[in-house]
Every structure is written in C-alpha cells, then in structure tokens.
Write a structure and sequence with these properties.
Elements (H helix, E strand, L loop, with lengths): L1 H46 L2 H56 L3 H18 L13 H9 L1
Length: 149
Amino acid sequence: PVFRLLEAQLQDQRREHEEEMEALKNLVDTMQEELEKQQQAFLQNLQLSPEAQVEFGLQQEITRLTNENLDLKEMLEKLEKNEKKLKKQLKIYMKKVQDFEASQTILPAERRQHDRNMQVAVQRKEKDFQGMLEYYKEDEPLLIRNLIT
C-alpha cells in the first residue's frame, strides 16, 4: 500500500513536470517567434530611409502604447469591479455590526435587573462597617429593647 501511494505520487509529479515543460516550450516558441518578427522589422527598418525609419519607429511606439493602454483599461475595469464588490461587502458588514450593537444595547428587563443585583452585591461586599448600625428613627425603641434582652 505505501509503495503504491509513493508510486502514484511519483506519477503525479512526473505528469506535473511534463505539463510544466510543455508550457515552457510553448512560451519559448512564442518568444522565438516574437524575436524573429522584431529582427525582421529591424532589418526592414535599416533598409528604409531615415525619414521612413522615424515613421516606422513612431508606428511601432504607437502600437506598443495602444496595447499598453488596453492592458491598463482592462486592469482598471477589474479594479473597479473589485471596488464595487468590496463596497457591497463593507455595507453588509456595517449592517451586521449595527445589528449586533443594537442587540447589545437592548437588553431584556430581567438581564438589566440581574446586572443591577450584581452591582449591588459587589457594593455591599466592598463596604466594611465595624460597630456602626443604620436604622429608621421609628424603630429605635424596638432596637433598644432587642439589644437589652
């Protein structure tokens, strides 16, 4: 089983390598064709008069700039699409954040009461009275009677 797994991995790597080699060969062929075209254009340019050489050079530069401009326009369109997509996502996330914040501020009455009880309990724990007693004035006779007995 391990041998078969290794053999399968080796075959996959071999296949990937062959595909990469084929892609690189195609790229080299394309580049060679482009180089041959440029060499032919250069040789033709050398045979032209100086004025024709300048005109040919200008035509080549115009063609190059046009292609570059088209590439930049395509890139701009992609970036604008991406910007619109990101703005939509931002709106969705902003709505989610607002909904979450709203749900956090609107607590049920029970929870608010529970929070108040917790605060009161904490306050009582923090107070440390020794020898002091708080009472209502009308309860004073009852308190004195209870202390004496």
